[in-house]
User: What shape does this take?
Amino acid sequence: MSEFDKFAANYNESLRNSLALTRTSDKYQAEYKVRLLKNLLVRGAAKSRATTHPTILDFGCGVGLSLPYLLEQFPGSKIFATDVSEVSLEIVRAELPQVTIINSALNAAEKFDVILMSTVLHHITSSARVEILENLRANLKPDGCLVVIEHNTYNPLTRRIVSNCPMDVDAELISMSDIKKLLSRGCGFKIRETGYCSFFPEPLKALTKLDPILKKIPLGGQYFVVATP
Assistant: This one.
């Protein structure tokens, strides 16, 4: 049994409560990150590595908040999902039968064009990160990419939200610079693109068009790292 099983039934409510301070909904946050992924694959450093219909794995999918938007933004793509919480995966199975659920202990024969880790790494203990990331590297196609989205350790509001979230009680936040070192020196990835994101709350979503201009400024609520094998 995973420790996250106990959060599955009330996951959305807990996340909404945590985000209330920012006046941003859990659904908007999930959609924003999938749109960011789409932009990175279409216009960013991962452009040449994206196929017309990439096979995408949502690693650490939770109860599947991002999955409807992955299906929407990548029509024709095969979407896979996995999580250590079996209770969460049962919710995904019931609500999104078009998503393929796979075991969190990935088989090396399973290969993906894109692996998304959206606010997952801080839930993994520092001692376990290298092994998991090395395994994910083995599960990427030669021209595939890993996209990591994490909480910005420099943003005081982000740190406050994390500290007040019951699901993050054991979280180990990691900075962008440390993730880059971990991926490149520790796991053999090549860093293709990095940037800060989530600058504006949902009421100011019209301003997200400025995100590409602001991505080097460490004020966003989160950040992203694109890496290739």
In short: Confidence is low (pLDDT under 50) at residues 5-9. Residues 26-42 form the longest helix (17 residues). The chain has one domain: 5-228. Residues 5-228 form a domain with the Rossmann fold fold (CATH 3.40.50.150).
